[in-house]
Structures are given as structure tokens and as C-alpha cells.
Amino acid sequence: MLWLVLLATACRSTPPGGPAVITLPASMLGAEGEVLRIQLARFARLRPDIRVVQRATPDAADQRHQLYVQWLNAGASEPDILQLDVVWTPEFAAAGWILDLDRFHPPTDSFFPATVTANRWRGRLYAVPWFVDVGMLYWRTDLMRAPPATFAELEREAARARAERGLRYGLVWQGARYEGLVAVFSEYLGGFGGRILDGGRVTVSSPAGVRALTSMRDQIYRQGIVPPATLTWHEEESRFAFQNGETAFMRNWPYAYALMADSAESRVAGRYAVAVMPAESGGRPTAALGGAQLAINANSSHAESAWAVIDYLTRPEQMLERARVVGQFPTRPSLYDDPALARALAIPPAQARAIIEHAVPRPVTPVYTQLSDILQIYLHRALTRQLEPAPALAGAATEMQALLDRVGLGEARPIAGR
Ligand code: GLC
Fold it and tell me: Among 104, 296, 305, 375, which residue's Cβ finds the most Cβ atoms within 10 Å?
């Protein structure tokens, strides 16, 4: 047996030309950079023939996207591995920028089906789901007994908390003009029973869409529970407001949960819980499906080594550790029955799983970024009162439909019942 061990060790020793260098720009939000550093250090001991260089990327989704597009459009061979937002995979795959990973036989049956669907393009898998994000409603357990089920209840509770406890704000979300705003809007939209697209047809300017956007706007100017400052906020600014005890509710992703549990940093440690976002009759509680995937640059000179890194980072042990350190949700459903996950996550795994299984993907299309860019502009115009919600959504829908038609994805499919 010893010779086997020796042989295995020999195969994995540093090659004469030095190790293959793999670059991996990844998120450093919260404790993400730290957990990755720990995992890569362990990987280095297993595979001295591969050296992974960790790089930082901008936190804001759109800025990161822009940077990747610059690199990949220029045909750069670096970075080798890309941390992709769930909404980018079809775009990068269709552009030929990332490798079809089916050649490495990824264990696709082990991941939540929705996360696999979001990473397929023309039937092939282009990225491996790393962690899954779902938009959630954070609520203060010291201010109310149960989370609100409808927006009307949320507005009442928020107003009460402000009047009785002198809170500065009622609710905060991500309202800057970037991808985060579309994620938040998609949750209001689902809550009112609407959708952004239906096949090749843009359906965002439906009555449900107008009600959803009107509700967001009214929460700022009519009920006065959402501060106008939210219109410049990303994830972190919202978290700061919530963890400083300034607001009764916050819409955010799971990463905020673990960070706010630290009483040295957070004034609300031990005094909050999460729930799915509210809904009105005719709609359903909706969580935007987000999260990160790992893909390989099609021009990488070290595809095999890059795959070894991805395979390692997406194993159950690393996902459990990430859940414990960062609070991010694993993409492997089997882990939700593992007591180790219950110990690792502050949120009961069954509750996390229930939200994930109700998560609604944003449209899976190679022109998602362009569609979102148009929608962001019009949503923001309505929220800053430059346009009324109905003409804003009508304007967005016209431009989005024109874009789909132009690239041949806009065939209006007949829809039953319409
Ligand atoms: C999170 C989500 C991602 C989303 C982004 C918006 O990173 O994982 O899917 O697009 O936030 O800000």
C-alpha cells in the first residue's frame, strides 16, 4: 500500500516548471474573503502542483460584471476562474467566454435544480453553483411577535415601530440604480402576482407590475417608512442601518445574518429573524434567486487545474464551513438534512430550504444584463418621482421588447388564458 501512497504523493508534487498559477477574483464581502483564504490554504496542501492567487473584485454586482466583460472581451487568459452572479451565466456562455463544464462530469444531480437550470445554456452546464442567495425580510423580534404576511401589515408595523420606539426608518432595501434594485423589485412584483418576462414577451408593465412599483414608491413618499436615501443604497448600506437599530425591517441576502449576530459590531444581535417577503392576494411571497457560481475562462491555459479548484470549493465540507463562517446557504439540498448545517447556520436549515425552494429566478437569457439595465433606469425614475409608475413600466417594456425582438429572442408566444 505504501507504494500507492508514495505514487499519489509524487503525482501531486510541484512540477519542475513550478505550480500552475490559477487566478480567482472573488467576493470579499463580510467574511467571504477570509473563508476562501482558509479553504485555498487547505487546497494548497493537497495540491502543491496548483497555486491559486486570490484577487478582490468590486462588491456591487454591476461593477463586477463590467470588469469581467472588459477582461473576457479582450480575450484575456486571466482570470482563470470567475465567480459569476447567477444572472450572468447564459450571457457569458452564449458569448463563448466560459467553458462548457460537462467534460468534467460535474455532479449536477447534487445541486438545487433551480441553481442548475440557471447555469445551463443550450442544455450544457457552464458554471457550478457555489452558494445560493435568496432575498429575505429581516424583522426585529423585539418590536413585533411575528413577521408581516402582507405589505399592508408591514407598513402598519413599520409605522408603529417608528411612532412608539422612535426608530428612524421602517424598512430599508437596495434602491440604487443597479442590479440589486431589480432583485428587490422582482420580489414586490411576485408579491403582487406579476412577472418580468413570459417566454419572449415582456410582461413587466402589467397591472400587478404597476401596483408593485407604486407600493415601493408610496413606502418612500406616502407612508414615509422607506428613507429616500435608500435610492442610493446597496446591500451594505442597508445592513448598517439595520444593525445600528435604525429600522424595523430590511430586505437583504443571507450574508447579513451572520455579520449582525456579532454584538461587538451590531446593536441588534439576538433581536432579529428572517422571513420570506410579504405578498398581497393574487401574488405569492417571492424571494429573488441569487448567488454565486464558479466558471472557467474559455481562454484559461490551465482548465484542468481550474476545475480541480472548483471541484474542491464546491464540496460539501467547504459549503458547511462557508455556512458557518459567512452564513451563506449551500447549493446542495442533501446538506439541509445534515445536523452539521443546523450547527453551522444561524437560520434553521428547514426555514432556509423553504425560502430557497420558493425562490424565483430572474429571467434566464443571454441578454439579461441589457434588459436589467433598461429596467433599472425606469424603476429608478419612478422611485425618484421623475415618472409615474405606469408610464415608467410602459417605457421599460417597450425598450426591453425591442431589444428581445432585435436579437431574435422576442417571439411572442401565445399564452394560455390571455
Ligand atoms: C447578490 C446576489 C446576486 C444579485 C446581487 C444584486 O450578490 O447573489 O444574485 O444579483 O446581490 O446586488
Answer: 296
